[in-house]
Amino acid sequence: MDPQFEKHLLATRRHLLGGMAGGIGGIALSELLGGNRRASADPMAAKEPAFPARAKRMIVIHLTGSPPHLDLYDHKPELVKRSGEDCPAEAIAGKKFAFTSGTPKLLGTPRSWVRCGESGMELSDAIPNLHRVADKLCLVKSMFTDQFNHAPAELMVYTGSPRAGRPSLGSWATYGLGSENANLPGFVVLISSGVQPNGGTSSFGSGFLPSVYQGVQCRSKGDPVLYVSDPPGMDRTLRRKSLDALRDLNELQAKEFGNPETLTRIAQYELAYRMQDSVPEVMDISREPQRVLEAYGAKPGQSSLANNCLLARRLVEQGVRFVHLFDWGWDFHGTSPSEDIRDGLTQKGATFDKPAAALIEDLEQRGLLDDTLILCTGEFGRTPFREGRTASSSVLGRDHYPDCYSVWMAGGGVKGGLSYGQSDELGFKAASDQVHIHDLQATILHLLGFDHTKLTYRFQGRDFRLTDVHGHVMKALIS
Amino acid sequence: MITSRKELFFSLCLMTGCVCVFVMARQVVAENAPALRATPSFTRDINGILSNRCVRCHGPDAAARRGQGGGDDGLRLDTFAGATADSSGTAAIVPGQPTQSEIIARITSNDPELMMPPPDAGERLSAQQIDLLTRWITAGAQYEPHWSHVPPVRFAVPPVKATAWPKNDIDRFVLARLEAEGLSPQPEADRSALARRLALDLTGLPMSPEEVDAFADDPSPNAIDDCVDRLLSHNGYGEHQARQWLDLARYADSAGYADDPPRTIWGWRDWVVRAFDDNMPFDEFTIRQIAGDLLPSATLDDRVATGFHRNTLTNSEGGTIDEEFRSVAIVDRVNTTMSTWMGTTMACCQCHDHKYDPLSQREYFGIYAILNNTADSDKKSEEPVVRIPWEPIDARRAAIQNELADIEARIPPAPKGGVEPPEFQPVRAMIATLQKKLAENVPATVPVLEELSGDKRRLTKLQHRGNWQDLGPEIAAGVPSAFGSPTLTDGVGLDRMAFAKWLVDSRNPLTARVIVNRIWERLFGIGLVSTSEEFGTQGDPPSHPELLDWLACELVDTQWNIKAIQRLIVTSAAYRQTSKASAALVARDPENRLIACGPRVRLSAEVIRDQALAAAGLLSTKKGGPSVNPPQPNVGLKAAFGGGIDWQTSQGEDRYRRALYTTWRRSNPYPSMATFDAPSREVCTVRRPRSNTPLQALVTLNDPVYIEAAQAIARRMVKEGGSTTAKRATRGFRLVLARQPHPHEVERLVRLHEETRNALNDKPHDAMKLATDPLGPLPTDFKIDAADLAAWTVVANVILNLDETFMCP
């Protein structure tokens, strides 16, 4: 805990207390509970960034397991030509892979490719819906990271460190910016396909930042937020009556002990009461018109990436600062037909490209795309060769690969229709305009209005930041 | 360097107050100086300026050092020798001669080439800072070591005016400070508040109203001391005290990383609980955990104690390199040891010399070398482990083994390679079944430390920038020179045992201070050093330096007797003050650093839950054993690769065990506890934040665990409260909060009961659910209708959500 931060909190609380000498409760509550957040004791109150931001909010689509970028975004004709040949020794010398040893065989993509939009961005036929929005995509084909296993690599993407315990991107964003809507969590996590992120809750954890900046997991089935439903047998009227009694008693307590914390608690209970209404409301996609549901491929009552993309739009529209989606099932090793880069990828791609494209178009129609940054990525890329265990099977799969892969962003101040950076002819190395994961993070923070070297938090005697001691803002990606 | 210890601490005392005007009463006052222009003190006035504005580039870290070409030749301003060293005929500081001191020329220069701090390093020094530095150099530029790097000495207890107030010496230190500030202490809290405070602080459990009354009515002058003694030997004491140690030790029931598979190490947790219950002296407690295996004729318990450092994460994901993650674990052990015992954050030294404190990267790897020779090596099996007795499994195993022996005796051994007569086959099948059953009943084990010997021992090399593959020179075992040298046994060298003893050596300047500060922090909500994780120059100085040192000496002099220190603190008048504070006092001292009133601190996640279950009469008092799974919502998710995170809810008593025993899965923490700031325990946590969020409100309002508790409290209100609604409301209130409610509080609860009952009268289905789901059918031992009981459930739910309920009073 940063002592300076604590002092700041205390100071603002004290200020609050001082400013309402007239009556505990009434005035303070109305201030605290106003629809728009203002400077108050609330650590989630909306704050201005360090400099004018290009993106006011962010949506991350994480494809858990890491999609085969060579079959989606990065077309390598030379690799296709040499498919089936032994991997060149120099390409794999001294490298270690998760499930491959010896000399694997090169694997050219079986997909066909299309030049899309005015920009002529080349995308594969596994994601046809994204072809429509190619001119909105800022595709980076020269990404690299340091980790080749899922959990450390995923933590690297979102916390800047391969080990658990650091704050995640969404936590940094809400720590720096607060959130616009007091009735909803500022940092929402939505998970589809039934499996949690590789890094567990650490992938959206607050690390050593105060826990209010932790991502709040919302669900499309059951309670949308844990414990948001009143207990069986209690209706809203009864809950209101009980909260009235609670507030009356707490106000007596505040008078007797003079502890500012009591006032904060009173406010938090009122906020919780409103969240009980606002969270289920925003999470209820059945309120959307049929054409919108169809555009996303969303079906009320199900758990899917399509539903979550639609929810992401509903949430940012309501002022939620950061929405983080995780979708399991992208670990295309080839251990089963669903992990085959031919039919398997076509099927998985269909669950993703339609809602992702719809999200971009929907945000644009609502005038939100310009200041909403979307990032779509995995933990790393996949090898230009067949994975070792499945090399002799009929299923085509690829191993984990950190040295070169592709991600895309859209909206929020990035250049649309840009294909940035190149891999070498077989896809083993980022050949030009390399972008390390810390560079991507520095760029994202820049778009959100922060110098990544200055958004820091003191812990264990050190000023920690998302980009550790690395990272350069990639100006070429910014419009 | 420093003229007297007393002077140093007096100056510290002065620098810590932030809301008060100091009266300069120092002995050393510069001749001819105007009033209030005393010689600046290094610790109070100068070190902060140097540390914050200069030392980053002119400090201990040679790699970052600038001036004169930098590196080893660069300028150091953190030491007298460095600051006064000759540099081409000049020196940064010439004692007594500010006009000849280069530092003054630089900080006053307007030439961008010369000015310091350089133009890109933020604001210029203020006129006041320049004046302080100038006068300090004029007076001789005396450096003083950082306060926490000098071993504590026992100060004379200061005189006080209000001699009737102090109960013990702690109070004299506290009162002397209050009197200097023109404040007076608050009166003693009433007995019911004290009862609740003492019980929650020492055992983490509420007292029953009957116990509270007995204590309140106890006319004995020793009533409080007796009560404290009862609580210190209470069955729940060790469990409550252990909780914080588990945070420090990053104890969990899973191994971490993506798989985060289950790990069996609860035997170590139970050892910690027993150690606190038995009041094991803290030095022994330390030695056993760091080096119990190296004790002569180490017992099983001594070896189990070394599980402390086997709580590091293990990575068994495919393709991971064991040596990489073994190295990560050793790094974590260095960091955790230095944080836990010495309040020193060394994490930065893994990659470079400390930028502010005299700690080098070489010294970091000196400690690494001490811890680098244990047999564990990031294996999935967690080897080495020791087997510990655990009756339920051992009894089952014995029964199976007996049965096996019986059956095997009945048939001849299987012929080698030959064909066995068919009539033996059913018996063979039975044997196979039993052997499978035996294998399923895995004996309880604890991962432990085991020292490698001979050619298996590892050489330690410095890791450049903390990269385990980028190795530098070989580094010998060692401890940071700033903290005194260890005592070595002939022929053994600096092993883990010598290291453990060094941690609790009376000459170690930090350990005793860090431990008493943490005890104080738990009782007052904030430590005498508020940054309990950081005692270095970047931490906060102590609010009461003499008291901190006096307590540290007391801890060592009582042979590291933890209960004795706790008894001393909780029987002090300072601790016994009421926590009611005037608005003026809150405004003047919002963190209660001056201790002008009693503590009022939000309870931990564990205590909030245990308190509810205890008040409900549901809490199990069963101690120890494997962790349990109380109810939590099915979140419909699996772990990545880790198979199920299926939560098989425990049955019977195990649903209601103390929160300490809840399965702690790092990647999937028990949600209601995480909401109340329980850490994931991936790394050492010295201090939990105490947040106050709407998600917490949702937990205690709606989590079925808390609804069940409210239902059980409702039944106790009706059954034990008496016949009137006022008495029943009072009973519920007292079960949770100990004190008698004020009449208007009773009135409000009774009104809520009436409103709720009226609302539910024509909703029998809702009423029944609210009164019985999930606790169970209406009681049979007394008669009550569902609406009435449901209304009491709502009242109990409100009581469990009062601000006061979350606060130690």
Outline of the structure:
The complex is a heterodimer of chains A (479) and B (809). Chain A has helices at 3-18, 26-33, 77-81, 89-92, 128-131, 150-159, 169-177, 236-257, 260-283, 290-296, 305-317, 343-365, 437-447, and strands at 57-64, 113-116, 121-124, 137-144, 187-192, 216-218, 322-328, 372-377, 381-386, 398-401, 405-411, 418-420, 422-423, 430-432, 435-436, 457-459, 462-464. Chain A is of the alpha/beta class and 479 residues long.
Report what the structure shows.
By secondary structure, chain A is an alpha/beta fold. Chain A contains 13 helices and 17 strands. In chain A, 33% of the residues lie in helices and 16% in strands. In chain A, the strands form five sheets. In chain A, strands 1, 4, 5, 6, 7, 8, 11, 12 and 15 form a nine-stranded mixed sheet that branches. In chain A, strands 2-3 form a two-stranded antiparallel sheet. A two-stranded antiparallel ribbon of chain A has the order 9-10. The longest helix of chain A has 24 residues, at 260-283. Chain A is globular, with a radius of gyration of 24 Å. With 809 residues, chain B is mainly α. Chain B folds into four domains: 5-144, no CATH class; 239-382 and 453-502, no CATH class; 391-442; 603-809, no CATH class. In chain B, 44% of the residues lie in helices and 2% in strands. Chain B has helices at residues 5-16, 42-53, 80-84, 102-108, 127-138, 169-180, 191-202, 209-217, 223-232, 237-248, 266-277, 282-291, 300-305, 322-342, 361-371, 391-410, 425-440, 496-503, 511-524, 545-557, 562-570, 573-576, 583-588, 605-616, 671-675, 694-702, 704-721, 725-737, 743-760, 764-772, 786-799, 803-806, and strands spanning 385-387, 445-447, 461-463, 471-474, 601-602, 807-808. Chain B has a two-stranded antiparallel sheet. Chain B has a two-stranded antiparallel ribbon with strand order 3-4. In chain B, helix 10 (237-248) packs across helix 11 (266-277), helix 12 (282-291) runs antiparallel to helix 18 (496-503) and helix 29 (743-760) packs across helix 31 (786-799). Chains A and B meet through helix 1, helix 6, helix 8 and helix 9 of A and helix 14, helix 23, helix 25, helix 26 and helix 29 of B.
